[in-house]
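Folding follows sequence. Below is one example:
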Amino acid sequence: MSVAMNATMNFPRRDARDKLRGRTRYTVDQVRPGMLHAALARAQVPSARILRVDVSAARRMPGVRAVATAADGPFRHGIGIADHPLFATDRIRYDGEPVAAIAADTLAQAQAAAAAVVVDLEPLPAAISMADALAPNAPLVHADWRDYEVLFEGGARGGNVAWEATVVRGDVDAAFARPDVEIVESTFRVGRQNHLALEPRAVIAAYEDGRFHIETSTQVPWSIKNATARFLNVPASDVRVTVPPVGGGFGLKFDWALEPFAALLTRAAGRPVRLVNSRQEEMLTCLCRENAEIRIRSAVTQEGEIAGREAVVLMDCGAYGGEQIFLTTMTAHTLGGNYRLGAVRLVSRAIYTNTAPNGAFRGCNGVYNTFALERHTDEICAAIRIDPLAFRRRNVLGNKDIGSTGQVFEGDVLKPMLERMSELRAAKPSTQHLAGERLYGRGTAVCTWFVFVGPSAATVHLNADGSATLVTAGVEIGSGSMMQSLPQIVAGALGLRPENVVVRTADTDAAGYDVGVGGGRTTVSLGAASLAACQEVRSKLLDVAADMLEAAPEDLVLRNGRIEITGAEGSGTTIAAVAQRAQTIVGPISGSGAFTGPGVPAMPGCASGHFIEALDIPVFAVHECEVAVDPETGHVDVLSYRVVQDVGRALNPRAIFGQIQGGVVQGLGYALHEEISIGANGRIRQDSLETYRVPLAADVVPVDISLYEGAPSIGPLGTKGAGEVPILNVGAAIACAVANAIGRRVAELPLTPPRVLELILGNDRPLTLPHIANAWRDNVLT
């Protein structure tokens, strides 16, 4: 199916004006007649045995209409392992865990009733850190972990190790035993990062005609539908999920949150129920990017060949496995990516702790693994005395190279991208003069990432006025894919203008299954499903038009809202006229399509416990920055920033530029500002915007951007997801630049002024993580 070239253009977002003027109505802005307000009673300790939950006083409070506890929703859910109950049942596992839900006439009444819930507890020892959890005789966060339903086979489990994924390819021991290699070892640590979406997690639930209607701020309508049904023990067909505009997600809303609580309460009360997290609740219970510890060891020849690599990554999943079970997969494609490796052994573990659960965040564990890998790469270059850029040019993955899991990569992408970066650097003078008396450094970082594809469905209706309506379960979370890319794809396939394509908001009663919006998959997966739907629409449309114009369907072309005879511009008729004719003779024209990843082979027996063993759509990026470091304060100032990003084909360059600029700013926060600490009581200390530092307007750095097109992709029209990748390299590039500026090893993020000053003064202690020191083989569960 040919697609008109007007699929590539700087098509503006139709939702931009209302959002800028504050007219967009998010879930938090929705109201319903007779609506109740809900609040959660939350635990105030990190670890305890529940002796009694008494809600009798709460039920008698003014305005209370419904109360729900673990007895009303006793089922468990999870990704990979069904370890997560809706309410704390026999155990409290983290500070802030829900123990009851209250619905009342007003929010103040619901909050007062929640405060009146009495919970009798027996305190238990807590494992607050991963070191605590992995210590000998550590308290088990889940003493009954063996009894949990396993939803995905393959990962090893044991004690406080919720999940383990491993990669072994080649003879790693032999590689490290070679007499001609130098062994370079590095250890890194990163903290948690809060998504800080402007709209908190929010839901309105109603129970009507025996079915639940969940209106919620989410990235995954079908996941909410299925999780709510599981928690309430009802058929999934009893749950309808609709999604208003979403005020930011970044992965925070890629899993269930408040929806099952609201569903329980609306069924009990018989009235709509609104449940919204306060900002403090978001800060204390947000599914943060997890804190992690990484150890990498490489065997490298003096010529720069990486003969072998082994690494251990510990990911703090908090009290429940959640998405970290899935994210253990990513290590294989980050620490085992970027460069050709002779032999490789990787271990990635999700660790239970008595802290709030963590979750997916833009770039997932790739952000900190890229930081660790690129810093380790610079340390390799220092050890063997080779130029870091020359080392990267020599070793980056290229055509027919084998990845860590045995996947064969197609196309030379990273090497020409490094050359493109050299051209960008040469096109503008260095900003070193702006550093003045400060310490100046430059850093370059590459990354390998991927588009998460998975199943999607789409339906296209051709309307009598010549417009088209696209129905999917996709959600607009700010990336513009639903407002720009998909209308462009449909318009290009049907010869329409993008503004004549209406995209329906997500409704699981109207749209087929979709994994959800995240992982850069929207344009690729939903775009491919939409193209397949358009193919059916085109076929039906051209059949009717051929009858009307007395021409063969293959001699007709769709363009500019018309169907014309090839080679006779201005002939034929309008698409609207054909659509109207079709309604009278064959009925309204519609088409449906579907897509899922075709699957790329990995090496059999190489990977264990991985949800994705090979990458359907690899994506690459090269970042470079210049920094100035104040030797007296430790403050880091980013002087310039450049990005070369692999986009496959850019349907809307302006939209991609916006995503890259935003991703870099978010990455600046992770690299320099955003620090979360957890007290001995298991509570996150940064519980407001007063104590959690994010990038401000003055921190924003203009980004020089070059889009690299032409790399192989199975995406529609050769596209790749562009929204997730920009954050991947930022922490790595800045850390490499700071290390070069101060002449010290950088092993921890964020690089806050006190931390940088300690490095400059030489007062920092070496980063030692004894609980992973001997984890190469002896402690591997598999």
